[in-house]
Amino acid sequence: MITIAPKPLKVGKRVNTNHVEKVTRNYKQERWVHNSERLGKEDSLSAWWSIEELEAFIEEAKMHGADGLKFYFASYDEETAHRPEYIGLQTLVMVGTKQKVYADGSNRNRDIYVQTDKGADILAYNAGRLCPPACQQQDTNTFDDFEIGISIFDKAKKETAVI
């Protein structure tokens, strides 16, 4: 009998400040500027969740056999936005996944569906705090400490400066 061992599940790595600044700057210049221009307002640059709620979702995902999470890039419409100012903005949707290894040795991280009283439903989490527009801490009027840089968009020149 031939046993096919699954590939290691660890695919990410810890990165440094320089890496984060570079990839977020790339995103702002390559996508965010165009998205914001098309929307007629600044698109979101981040989505935030508390550690507590992430841990709770991860525990729920594990209870249903998940061995990973997939983050889908998404955007809100009038029906899905949990705040009116989020309509049209991009977000992230987290979905519990389970690695499936096929006979040919390939593998995929399949989305997990759970049985509910209304039938099968995807195991997913969304509705984080988007920045912009919600870049301020909930209890104060100061900007979040964890935001990286300030973007200045010159509409006349269609350029972005990151400070």
Could you explain how this protein is built, in words?
There is one protein chain. This protein is α+β, with helices and mostly antiparallel strands. The chain has a domain at 46-128. Helix content is 22%, strand content 30%. It contains two helices and ten strands. The chain has helices at residues 17-39, 51-63, and strands spanning 46-48, 68-75, 90-101, 107-111, 113-116, 119-122, 124-125, 129-131, 151-154, 159-162. The strands form four sheets. Strands 2, 3, 4 and 7 form a four-stranded antiparallel beta sheet that branches. The protein has a two-stranded antiparallel ribbon with strand order 1-8. The protein has a two-stranded antiparallel sheet with strand order 5-6. It starts with 16 loop residues before the first helix and ends with a strand. Residues 138-147 have low confidence and may be disordered.
Task: Show the helix and strand layout.
Elements: H1 17-39, E1 46-48, H2 51-63, E2 68-75, E3 90-101, E4 107-111, E5 113-116, E6 119-122, E7 124-125, E8 129-131, E9 151-154, E10 159-162
Antiparallel strand pairs: 1-8, 2-3, 3-4, 3-7, 5-6, 9-10
Percent in helix? 10-25%
Q: Kindly report the average pLDDT value.
A: 85
C-alpha geometry: globular
Total helices: the number is 2
- Measured on Cα atoms, how large is the radius of gyration? 19 Å
Distance between the termini: 60 Å
Low-confidence stretches: 138-147
How much β-strand is present in the residues?
25-35%
Query: Largest sheet, if any?
Result: 4 strands, antiparallel
Order of helices and strands: HEHEEEEEEEEE
Query: What is the structural class?
Result: alpha+beta
Got a strand count?
A: 10
